């Protein structure tokens, strides 16, 4: 549209926004993108990427200990938190520059500014105090850790945002929540030598996952030395005269720690963006409502990623960006497919999962076969580590379709990515059975579980 400054203006330089900006620019569209903080967004700056680097860092003590069984003598190791933070900073700065350069390289214009929508075709760039016009606007502002104003003393607590850059590694930490972030960080801190307590309000951590994995991960984490309190919530956090914190838990426990980290979900970033002013529809928690093509109630304004609160995962935001490009710029309306999304929890051991949990499958399928194997991975034979791996396939007994695949153990995330393909393709257990194993691997178990461990018929378990 020649009448506007841009064909597309993107607000938010995270995974979704940058992908849309880059691909639209590469199509020859005039594209602008504004980011108020750092290009790369949550995933690169204070999410998936630094988290995974910290997971690696926290695994070394076990590697050092395991080495003895393989004949190695490892001198006493020491850890430098400051070095890890600095090295992480260097890496994310490198990635941040690449994100920005990729947009510019494709011909897009990048702005370092907060952006506010003042009219469906007009965006105000606050840092430059000027407005630009655009034919299409894409909101991809992501989310942020949910605050907890109801908790007395919440101002003493940190979120995952701060956890990455603490000046000092705490000696003791309490992590509140039982989701991805709480579980991953509890394992990271424990691995780095921090006395760690996880406080979760429900009956078992990781409520959206298969119960077998949840239980086994819980047991394994406790065996490593992580304290897990279920059916527990903190009632207040008080600062002591010595600067430490007393977290009062509803079961009467008082935990004296150096940090309390809240990981109780994430909320969309939609405040002070002018959205109410232009009549953009949002949900009660401030997520932008979109149709199946990611279009808002205003025809030329679209939204993707965490700000829409559909599925809060980086690859989903990127997929939604690609579908948006097809729909808005290629005349090929494409709805993002949110079914059968594989996911990993980088706990220790790791979880990799795709498809239905046993409990969910039973709700929708009258005849279910469960194939389950629990074994000590070969790596732990000589190391002597008392840690088991769990693999589980959930199969529809009538159609033989594999409905769910769940793994707990080393490299589970990598396996989940590959399992996502047969599950997405709707392959059956027979297809798994006629697939040759790769030996010796842990993953070969997935194609060699020939007999069901048990069936669940009309909700009744039959062994
Ligand atoms: P989650 O939704 O995974 O977990 C939130 C946790 O906080 C749940 O255990 C929830 O309990 C609990 N909770 C919610 N409200 C309260 C409260 N008021 N008091 C006490 N506990 C509460 O959110 P996260 O913050 O862990 O992560 C946000 C999103 O980021 C995830 O949903 C995920 O999509 C994404 N993510 C993905 C990762 C990955 O792919 N590996 C890693 C990190 C994040 P309950 O279960 O009872 O609801």
Q: What is the overall shape?
A: globular
CATH architecture annotation name of the largest domain: 3-Layer(bba) Sandwich
- Biggest beta sheet attributes: 7 strands, mixed
User: What number of structural domains do the residues give?
Assistant: 3
Radius of gyration: 24 Å
Question: Could you please say which CATH topology of the largest domain applies here?
Answer: FAD/NAD(P)-binding domain
Notes on the protein architecture:
With 463 residues, the protein is an alpha/beta fold. The chain has three domains: 6-145 and 267-329, FAD/NAD(P)-binding domain; 154-264, FAD/NAD(P)-binding domain, CATH 3.50.50.60; 343-455, 2-Layer Sandwich (Enolase-like, domain 1). 30% of the residues lie in helices and 25% in strands. The chain has twelve helices and 23 strands. It has helices spanning 15-26, 41-46, 48-67, 81-105, 160-163, 180-191, 211-224, 314-329, 358-364, 379-383, 412-424, 429-433; strands at 6-11, 31-35, 109-112, 115-119, 122-125, 130-139, 143-145, 172-176, 195-199, 227-229, 234-239, 245-249, 254-257, 259-262, 266-268, 301-303, 343-345, 351-355, 367-375, 389-396, 402-408, 454-457, 460-462. Strands 1, 2, 3, 4, 5, 6 and 16 form a seven-stranded mixed beta sheet that branches. Strands 17-18-21-20-19-22-23 form a seven-stranded antiparallel beta sheet, with helices on both faces. Strand 20 (389-396) and strand 21 (402-408) form a beta hairpin. Helix 1 packs parallel to helix 8 (314-329) and helix 3 packs across helix 4. It starts with 5 loop residues before the first strand and ends with a strand. The model has no long low-confidence stretch (mean pLDDT 97). NADPH dihydro-nicotinamide-adenine-dinucleotide phosphate binds at residues 176-182, 184, 200-202, 207, 233, 263-266, 312-313, 343-346.
